[in-house]
Amino acid sequence: MHTAEIRRRFLDHFEQAGHTVVPSAPLLFDDPNLLFVNAGMVPFKPYFLGQETPPWQTATSVQKCVRTLDIEEVGKTTRHGTFFQMNGNFSFGDYFKEGAITHAWRLITGSVADGGLGIDADKIWVTVLHSDQEAREIWRRVAGLPDERIQDRGLLDNYWHMGVPGPGGPCSEIYVDRGPEFGPDGGPVVDEDRFLEIWNLVFMQEEIANVRAKDQFDVIGELPNKNIDTGMGLERVAYLLQGKGNLYEIDEVFPVIEKASEVSGRTYGKDHADDVRFRVVADHVRSGLMLMGDGVTPGNEARGYVLRRLLRRAVRSMRLLGFEDPALPLLLPVSLERMKASYPELEADFPRIEQIAYAEEDAFRQTLGKGTQIFESAAVKVKESGGSGLSGEAAFTLHDTYGFPIDITLEMAAEKGLSVDEEGFRSLMAEQRSRAKADAKAKKGSHADTTVYRSALDANGPTDWQAYTTLTTESR
Ligand code: ATP
Ligand code: MG
Ligand code: MG
Ligand code: MG
């Protein structure tokens, strides 16, 4: 079943049940706590928090999401994309636990002929919060699930809140057993690779306060209006229903892998390290396309840095696959072809998007060309002297003189089995910063040398966002 078809079935199911279909918000939705929208409920937050009255009692959407936290997982697990789409259904004081569970069960196990997704009921496992006997009882009654396939979990995994006083509540997650060849028995509490999480149902039922940690807070009362927020990973369901082994092989993503394989001459599915690179390429090219489509441009500040990092990792992964020519002009149009059915606005905007992407690749190629040579000779020296790590000074020179970002140095060193003295690198960066500050003070009335702190941002951005804030305030 095509990804677009699963999306359509999801929306149809909930529309037929009276939900208003709400279009995806842009990835750059205005939320001071988030770089990007990372869940379907984000645009609805003011309703859940009681700050605004929702115009409808029930809604459904397919929301574009970016989770930068998952960047290191891409290609290594079978299920994490940096960009993905979250199907959701939402109830604002309308149906609650029983309604949410009934809807989910009917949609995923309903026959394909009747508009369902046709997933085998015997393969479904769920988790509930240990104290949520009500949810357990509903799963038993509505879905006929045997007790052993309804697993208990603690607050850390199965309680949802926003980290601030406000609504909170237990959640229940739905998993599909991919089969014994993918891991041990025992359900999702034992193995989340074999048992693939596809859907999270959140039951917002109480008000919490004094949030001290994810699993430490006080429940101060019941909410007057109980709400439902759910999120189903569209790509995850697609990967199951398309009979694939991971989400990089679905119809919306795999053609980029095929193109990368065609132009690099390397075969997908032969070598594990290469396969991870292929998946990183396909994932990052798509995420880059979606971010640029929503107006992000590469840069050294937080959001722009994420995009820069995604595009550069894609380009570098192509190099590791042996392809040294400009890659994005070959790959980005393939991703566009796949995504434009669901996001037609991308096509009209593509001339702008491709210009941004190709300029970024050009700039990066220049940096890489110089930096790689310097890195290689530094690495040879380390090995010859019997060492196991690159000095902070070498990493600093690469960064400072050749504009080689520290995350690339870290990755390249790791590939050679070398460590990097990151602490040394950071203290050299700090020294440079205070020098720049002193210089700026000396040159009364003139600006701080912005190139210095911009390159510092370049270095610190990906690993420590705090550095960005600190640096900018310091430099002012
Ligand atoms: P996981 O435990 O696999 O990292 P999660 O518990 O972090 O997933 P939720 O926050 O519950 O995910 O998000 C709701 C749904 O969105 C998940 O059940 C999953 O289907 C999907 N999802 C979450 N993260 C990703 C991702 N990085 N790529 C693709 N789908 C995702
Ligand atoms: Mg996660
Ligand atoms: Mg999870
Ligand atoms: Mg989850």
TrEMBL record:
Cofactor: Zn(2+)
Location of the Alanyl-transfer RNA synthetases family profile domain: 1-476
Main location: cytoplasm
GO cellular component: cytosol
Catalysis performed (reactions): tRNA(Ala) + L-alanine + ATP = L-alanyl-tRNA(Ala) + AMP + diphosphate
Record keywords, A-Z: Aminoacyl-tRNA synthetase, ATP-binding, Cytoplasm, Ligase, Metal-binding, Nucleotide-binding, Protein biosynthesis, RNA-binding, tRNA-binding, Zinc
Cofactor binding note from Swiss-Prot or TrEMBL: Binds 1 zinc ion per subunit.
EC number from the UniProt entry: 6.1.1.7
Compartment(s) where it occurs, according to its Swiss-Prot or TrEMBL record: Cytoplasm
GO terms, molecular function: alanine-tRNA ligase activity; aminoacyl-tRNA deacylase activity; ATP binding; tRNA binding; zinc ion binding
Gene Ontology biological-process annotations: alanyl-tRNA aminoacylation
Function according to Swiss-Prot or TrEMBL: Catalyzes the attachment of alanine to tRNA(Ala) in a two-step reaction: alanine is first activated by ATP to form Ala-AMP and then transferred to the acceptor end of tRNA(Ala). Also edits incorrectly charged Ser-tRNA(Ala) and Gly-tRNA(Ala) via its editing domain.
Family in the record: Belongs to the class-II aminoacyl-tRNA synthetase family.
Domain-related comment: Consists of three domains; the N-terminal catalytic domain, the editing domain and the C-terminal C-Ala domain. The editing domain removes incorrectly charged amino acids, while the C-Ala domain, along with tRNA(Ala), serves as a bridge to cooperatively bring together the editing and aminoacylation centers thus stimulating deacylation of misacylated tRNAs.
Protein name: Alanine--tRNA ligase
